Every structure is written in structure tokens, then in C-alpha cells.
């Protein structure tokens, strides 16, 4: 008889699934032992509440409202981070000027930024601004590190053969920067979602997950709070996978590598 061997990739997926099941079981046991739904609902109750909420139009209005604002902040900050990294690579004065500003952004608590920003920014746009600020330092620093890691021998060869700037970007800088950009995306998207939703909880814009969470808290609707939290996690994971897929496809296209199916 032939022995069937599990591939490392399949084994890794099974281990991840097992870890998720373990924590869900632990959550279920904790809920059963506590036996007070107002303090800790079971995963079954949270999923059932989420499914019920998905049958209501208000759920989709809140999801699309928050999703659009947070995604806008993420895209704007990523594009600006790439641009600033390119300028810092070309001009050392830009790198020097940006360092204290970005360090200040990273060190300032999100709550302080939200409260200060409410003075100048409408509550509807606050989550865009907060998401933007959370992602910008990560995108800038990672992409700049990628640019700095470009092979100096290849750059020297490009100068000797007078390869145009666009060709150098495509052949040298882009391959060096894309892996770091993917790292930045994976690091920043979860933080971006958490900060954006926290801003919505404070600012209370219409049609937002943050407002729905705050309403659930006011009425002690714990199942709804857990259901919204579960929705946030699922949306964050889905958005991360989508953005990583798009960046990988762009990388392959720029490098002239056909996408595998």
C-alpha cells in the first residue's frame, strides 16, 4: 500500500485550523462556565447574531461606510508613503525632515490624535484621517528600506549603460521595494482597521461600525458587540488578502512574470 504524505503547505493549514478551533472551544467553555451572556457570549451566539444582522440593510450601510472610509485612508497613506520614500531616496534632506514628524506620529496615542483631530475634521472624515496617519509611517519606512536595499552594482551598471529612469524603477527599485511593501501592508492593515473603528466609536459618524458598536454598548447588547467585532476581524482579514493579491499581481506584471493560475 502507498503511504499518502501531507504536504508542508497542507500541514500548515491544518495546524492553523486546529489553533482556531482550540481558541473557539476555549471561548465556548469560558462562556458556559461564566453563564452570563451579558459578560461573555458564546461563539455560537455571536455567529448567530452576526448572521441575523446580515439580513438587515443597516448592517451593510455600516459595513460599506466604514470599509470605504478606512480603505480610502489606507490607499492615500500607502501612495503618499511610496512617494515620500522615493523622494527620501533621491534627496537626503527630505529624509532628515520627515524623520521627526513620522516619529511623533508613531509615538502619539491614537486617542490623543482622535480628540485633537475632532477640532479640525468633521466626524464623517475622522476615520479616514486616523487610518491615514496609522499607515503612513509604516508604508514610508518599509518602502524606503526596500529602495535602500537595491543592489548598488545593478544601479552602477544602469548608470554606465544609461538605462532610463523608468527602466531602473522597473528592473531594480521595484523588485527591491515590493517585498517590503507587502510587509508594510500586512503590518498596517490590522492596525488601520483598529484605529479607524476606534475613531468612529468616538466621533459617531452615521452609517459606521463604530457607531453600531457604541449603540450596542449603551444598550448592553453584548451579542451585537461580539458580532460586530467578529465582522471587523473578517473584514480586516479579507481586505488584507485582497490587497496582498493585488500588489503581488502588480509586482508580477512590472517584472514581466506571468501570473500563475
Automatic annotation (TrEMBL):
<dbReference type="GO" id="GO:0005886">
    <property type="term" value="C:plasma membrane"/>
</dbReference>
<keyword id="KW-0812">Transmembrane</keyword>
<keyword id="KW-0472">Membrane</keyword>
<comment type="similarity">
    <text>Belongs to the binding-protein-dependent transport system permease family.</text>
</comment>
<protein>
    <submittedName>
        <fullName>ABC transporter permease subunit</fullName>
    </submittedName>
</protein>
<feature type="transmembrane region" description="Helical">
    <location>
        <begin position="225"/>
        <end position="247"/>
    </location>
</feature>
<dbReference type="GO" id="GO:0055085">
    <property type="term" value="P:transmembrane transport"/>
</dbReference>
<dbReference type="Pfam" id="PF00528">
    <property type="entry name" value="BPD_transp_1"/>
</dbReference>
<feature type="domain" description="ABC transmembrane type-1">
    <location>
        <begin position="63"/>
        <end position="243"/>
    </location>
</feature>
<keyword id="KW-0813">Transport</keyword>
<keyword id="KW-1003">Cell membrane</keyword>
<feature type="transmembrane region" description="Helical">
    <location>
        <begin position="110"/>
        <end position="140"/>
    </location>
</feature>
<dbReference type="InterPro" id="IPR035906">
    <property type="entry name" value="MetI-like_sf"/>
</dbReference>
<feature type="transmembrane region" description="Helical">
    <location>
        <begin position="70"/>
        <end position="98"/>
    </location>
</feature>
<dbReference type="InterPro" id="IPR000515">
    <property type="entry name" value="MetI-like"/>
</dbReference>
<keyword id="KW-1133">Transmembrane helix</keyword>
Amino acid at each position: 500500500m502507498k503511504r499518502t504524505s501531507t504536504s508542508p503547505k497542507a500541514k500548515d493549514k491544518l495546524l492553523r485550523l486546529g489553533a482556531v478551533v482550540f481558541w473557539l472551544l476555549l471561548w465556548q467553555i469560558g462562556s458556559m462556565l461564566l453563564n452570563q451572556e451579558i459578560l461573555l457570549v458564546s461563539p455560537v451566539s455571536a455567529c448567530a447574531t452576526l448572521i441575523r444582522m446580515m439580513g438587515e440593510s443597516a448592517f451593510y450601510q455600516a459595513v460599506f461606510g466604514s470599509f470605504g472610509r478606512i480603505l480610502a485612508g489606507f490607499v492615500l497613506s500607502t501612495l503618499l508613503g511610496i512617494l515620500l520614500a522615493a523622494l527620501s531616496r533621491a534627496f537626503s534632506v527630505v529624509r532628515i525632515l520627515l524623520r521627526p514628524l513620522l516619529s511623533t506620529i508613531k509615538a502619539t496615542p491614537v486617542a490623543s490624535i482622535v480628540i485633537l483631530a475632532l477640532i479640525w475634521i468633521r466626524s464623517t472624515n475622522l476615520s479616514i484621517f486616523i487610518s491615514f496617519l496609522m499607515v503612513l509611517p509604516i508604508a514610508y519606512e518599509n518602502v524606503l528600506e526596500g529602495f535602500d536595499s537595491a543592489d548598488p552594482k545593478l544601479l552602477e551598471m544602469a548608470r554606465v549603460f544609461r538605462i532610463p529612469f523608468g527602466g531602473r524603477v522597473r528592473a531594480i527599485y521595484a523588485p527591491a521595494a515590493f517585498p517590503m511593501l507587502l510587509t508594510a501592508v500586512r503590518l498596517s492593515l490590522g492596525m488601520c482597521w483598529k484605529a479607524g473603528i476606534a475613531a468612529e466609536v468616538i466621533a459617531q459618524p452615521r452609517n459606521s461600525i463604530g457607531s453600531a458598536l457604541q449603540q450596542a454598548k449603551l444598550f448592553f447588547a453584548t451579542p451585537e458587540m461580539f458580532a460586530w467585532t467578529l465582522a471587523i476581524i473578517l473584514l480586516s482579514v479579507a481586505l488584507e488578502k485582497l490587497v496582498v493579491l493585488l500588489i503581488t499581481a502588480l509586482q508580477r506584471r512590472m517584472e514581466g512574470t506571468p501570473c500563475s493560475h
